Amino acid sequence: MNKVFKPNKAELLEVYDLEGNLIRTQQRADFYKEIKEEFKNTGKITKQVKRITLILMTSNGRIYIQKRSDEKKENPGLYDKTVGGNCRAGHTWYMTVVQECHEELGFPAVVLTDDEFRMAIKHTDLRIIGLFRRVEYIPNFISVRKS
Predict the structure, then answer these.
(1) What CA–CA distance (Å, rounded) separates 103 from 2?
(2) Residue of 58, 125, 123, 131 lying closest to 94 (CA atoms)
(3) Share of the chain above pLDDT 70, in %
(4) Is 146 exposed, middle or buried (0-12, 13-18, 19+ CB in 10 A)?
(5) Fewer CB near the last or first residue (10 Å), C or N of the chain?
(6) Residue 142: how many CB atoms within 10 A of its CB?
(7) CA 109 to mean position of chain CA atoms
């Protein structure tokens, strides 16, 4: 297995306020513990981290979703996006897409501009590499969780 991105149990994240201003870096486990406690006590959150969500779509417009394992702590047994993950401290959105495709799907990927994508899709063997383009960016998206 290619170890371009080495999984790290102590994942360092950039923490932002809800306006997108960087507050600090923090260990992933500590951030989620803190944010869950804050929501439990106040019913709202005041901090966020950068995340990517990737939905795979076929050339004829069909999408791939997955059913989460019943053993998962968050959202067990529910349908979910194809790939998702936190942006590690210092990583761009695009680096995170490449990293998460490698970790969760086991294939290399690249994020292209619209023009690059239109050209590459005609000449690329998609059995070898995933081609992606950013379709939408939703600032301050709040994911609803079921615990």
Answers:
(1) 10
(2) 131
(3) 86
(4) exposed
(5) N
(6) 10
(7) 14
Structure-token match 């495709």, residue found: 101
Domains of the chain from N-terminus onward: 12-133 (3.90.79.10)
Q: Do β-strands 109-112 and 83-86 pair in parallel, antiparallel, or remain unpaired?
A: unpaired
C-alpha 26/C-alpha 28 separation (Å) is: 6
**For residues 41-69, average pLDDT:** 89
Containing H/E element for 15? strand 12-17
> Global pTM?
0.76
Cβ distance 85 to 99 under 8 Å?
yes
Q: Using CA atoms in the order 59, 139, 81, 6, what is the torsion angle rounded to 10 degrees? A: 100
**Taking the C-alpha atoms of 72, 73, 74 and 77 in order, what is their torsion angle to the nearest 10 degrees?**
40
Euclidean distance between CA atoms 66 and 76, whole angstroms: 12
pLDDT at 65 over 90: no
